[in-house]
Write a structure and sequence with these properties.
Elements: E1 7-9, H1 14-24, E2 28-31, H2 37-42, E3 50-53, E4 63-66, E5 69-73, H3 78-83, H4 85-90, H5 92-98, H6 104-109, H7 112-118, H8 125-131, E6 135-140, E7 143-148, H9 149-152, E8 153-155, E9 158-159, E10 166-173, E11 179-185, E12 195-204, E13 207-216, E14 223-224, H10 226-232, H11 238-245, H12 262-280
Parallel strand pairs: 1-3, 2-3
Antiparallel strand pairs: 4-5, 5-10, 6-7, 6-10, 8-9, 11-12, 12-13, 13-14
The structure holds flavin-adenine dinucleotide.
Flavin-adenine dinucleotide binds near residues 33, 106, 117 and 125.
Length: about 280
Amino acid sequence: MIPPAFDYARPTSLDEALRVLADGGEDAKVLAGGQSLLPLLRLRLAFPELVVDVGRVPGLRGVREDGDTLVIGAMTTHHEVVRDPLVRRHAGLLAAVTRTVADPAVRHRGTFGGSLAHADPAADLPAAVLAMDGELVVAGPGGRRTVPAREFFVNYLETVLEPDELLVEVRVPKADGWGFHYEKFQRVAQSYAIVGVAALVRRDNGRIAEARIGLVNMGATPLRATAAEQALADCDDAPAVARAAQSATDGTQPPRDTSGSPEYRAHLAQVLTRRAVLTAAGMG
Ligand code: FAD
């Protein structure tokens, strides 16, 4: 289908982008890689009067270190995240998760920040950033604010971002020494997850000292499986991990759609949590 008519702006600085967004108010929409926004426009599910293309705003792309933190620019593409040596070394979970997003064409256009700002609970990256205890840096007319990933996702396709704000970068603590694994259950290769589980595990003396689990498509937002995380502490063998993984569904509200019922998704979440944790812990 043909998108509805809209005005188009392509700012060349962050200040200009924020000014244009402020002028556009509720009727403006940021365009990053366009891999989610353009389908919404073409299906006439979104009707912005102004599309603000931030592709030429400098400083929003790339990965850098800041002490114990990795800083990933919002406009860094999925392809760049997968290949980045700093991400591979210090945040292997992000590389593993991003590698499963869609196909090479989408990964070359779609952006890290776009995926988080879009806040689709079926997307892979939001749950991974949640599991990594990431923080999102948002620029707006009043300056910058930093939002923990746990507070960023509000509801289905809804975040704390205001219409005049731009997600500029994502900060994730380096996960050196943590094992990681992503289990994505999908019916068709290169599609969205029916359920996904992103796991980070730190072991000490053969026992799980700490586990962090991000759940994909188990509610209106990406979720942390906090009950399972607590139950996993001190587990030292596969049966104990399997028992703890049963709590992965606590507090979730999995959706019903053509890919599966809530009950089916709950079963998947428990199985995938067990597999992801065992692999991340090297106990599989
Ligand atoms: P855009 O489409 O440009 O924007 C998406 C939304 O976020 C818009 O509302 C926009 O205004 C807002 N936005 C974007 N950037 C910012 C910013 N910096 N600040 C504020 N707001 C912003 N994703 C998965 O996770 N897993 C998959 O398996 C998967 N499969 C896909 C298959 C296909 C065929 C397609 C087309 C997409 C798929 N995606 C998948 C989505 C893909 O990852 C997109 O790249 C991502 O959801 C959006 O990123 P984008 O840069 O394209 O954002």
